[in-house]
Design a protein that fits this description.
The complex is a heterodimer.
Chain A lengths: L3 E5 L3 H13 L3 E5 L2 H9 L6 E5 L7 H10 L8 E5 L2 H7 L4 E4 L4 H9 L6
Parallel strand pairs in A: 1-2, 1-3, 3-4, 4-5
Chain B lengths: L2 H18 L7 H6 L3 H70 L2 H35 L8 E4 H18 L4 E4 L5 E4 L1 H17 L6 E8 L2 E8 L31 H11 L3 E7 L3 E9 L3
The chains are: A alpha/beta, B alpha+beta.
């Protein structure tokens, strides 16, 4: 599957940095600052091939977004990678999702994404 | 002493013992019922003593609660601060990598050469920051008794080889040679990242306190145990500091000469113990130090 990636993170700097990294690696990227903004983006008809999700966010956090995405038939098959600084606790709370622990380097993130999608 | 007086003394002693144990059978009504004014005075004194003691005990227990709360708040703060710092460190590390990528593509060889050293130093500081943040998180994890061990089949020698390779530059900068006596594979079920963390910590100490002299890493195994050691010929640990080097915030070397948080060996001990192993050392001031870690090869 070719890579259109939705990055959901409330930290502007990290969001932009990840976007720069992914775009320079050949992916197309959309971003959202929280779960609610992401849902609004998805309701516009956009279907990413992978979602990169932060957990601690105001206005619909990552857990709530994940719950919503798992209950939505059109999103259920989209792989979700979780970026978190709390990998021990968060990993245990949601075994079905893959976790990319912070801090991560470019190679780790690209390898995790590459297991699901390829650049365009 | 007449027997009635002896009985009275015994009774008073019983009261004192009761007070010491936090109990007291003296009451205001009981004191008033006594006919002898001297006895009344003694009983009133004992009752006051009991009340003072009770107040002191309550105060002590309130202070203890306060203290426990403060320690808990400190550990929670360390955990939150550590986790919060991970996001900007991630951004910083990714931006530096991105910057390097752009430079490699676009910069002239001269500019690249001029910036190489700066990039190298910057990258190293990000690694140091990540290490310090990991230490903060480990402290809160150990204090909350949340150290998790995840074993996988691995070769201990290979883990040590990687740690030695990774610290080779750092040792060279300090003027120390770093050598692993490679005795062949040492297979077992190990928590690779934790073993590597302990080895890295011991190696960093050896480099820091090693006075630029050679550092040797050895490993061996028999039956169900595997052992590795890190030996330096550095400043050594003074005998009077030796009993407390594995304690939290303790540092044997003077803080005015050597930087550090005083947490490395404390973390090592907890990690090694969480893996079911032991850590020990022998050291002589001015001669050097050897740390030895022994680990079970299966859970």
């Amino acid at each position: 599957m070719t890579g259109h990636i939705l990055v959901i993170d409330d930290n502007d700097d990290l969001r932009e940095t990840v976007q720069m990294l992914l775009e320079s690696s050949g992916y197309s990227v959309a971003t959202a600052a929280n779960g609610r903004a992401a849902l609004a983006h998805l309701q516009g008809g956009s279907r990413p091939s992978l979602i990169l999700l932060d957990l601690m966010m105001p206005d619909m956090n990552g857990w709530q977004f994940l719950e919503h995405a798992r209950g939505d038939a059109s999103l259920r098959s989209v792989p979700i990678l979780i970026m978190t600084a709390h990998q021990e606790t968060d990993g245990a709370r949601m075994p079905p999702a893959e976790v990319v622990p912070k801090p991560f380097d470019a190679a780790t993130l690209l390898a995790a994404i590459g297991r699901h999608v390829s650049p365009i | 002493m007449p027997s009635s007086e002896a009985g009275l003394v015994e009774q008073r002693l019983d009261h004192i013992a009761e007070i010491g144990a936090g109990r007291c059978s003296i009451t205001d009504a009981g004191i008033e019922a006594e006919a002898d004014p001297n006895t009344q005075q003694i009983l009133a004194g004992l009752l006051m003593l009991h009340e003072d003691l009770q107040f002191a005990q309550q105060r002590q227990s309130a202070l203890l609660d306060e203290l426990r709360g403060a320690v808990r708040a400190r550990d929670e703060f360390l955990s939150i601060a550590g986790h919060e710092l991970r996001t900007p460190i991630t951004t910083l590390a990714l931006q530096i990598e991105g910057l390097e990528g752009v430079l490699r593509q676009k910069a002239s060889p001269e500019l690249l050469a001029a910036l190489a050293r700066r990039m190298d130093l910057t990258r190293r500081q990000v690694d140091r920051l990540s290490g310090l943040v990991a230490t903060l998180i480990d402290v809160s994890r150990i204090n909350a008794r949340r150290v998790q061990v995840s074993r996988e089949p691995a070769d201990l020698m290979e883990v040590l080889r990687l740690a030695v390779d990774r610290l080779g530059d750092q040792a060279a900068r300090a003027g120390s040679s770093l050598r692993l006596e490679d005795g062949g594979p040492l297979r077992g079920d190990f928590d690779v990242s934790r073993v590597e963390q302990v080895a890295t910590n011991l190696l960093s100490n050896a480099i820091r306190y090693g006075r630029g002299r050679p550092i040797v890493v050895r490993a061996s195994g028999e039956d169900g145990r595997a052992r590795f050691s890190v030996e330096d010929a550095g400043i050594g640990i003074a005998r009077e500091h030796q009993p407390r080097i594995f304690q939290q915030y303790e540092r044997a070397a003077p803080a005015t000469n050597y930087a550090g948080l005083g947490l490395g060996l404390w973390i090592c001990r907890h990690l090694v113990e969480a893996m079911g192993g032991t850590i020990s050392f022998r050291s002589e001031e001015g001669v050097g130090t050897e740390f030895t870690v022994e680990l079970p090869r299966s859970p």
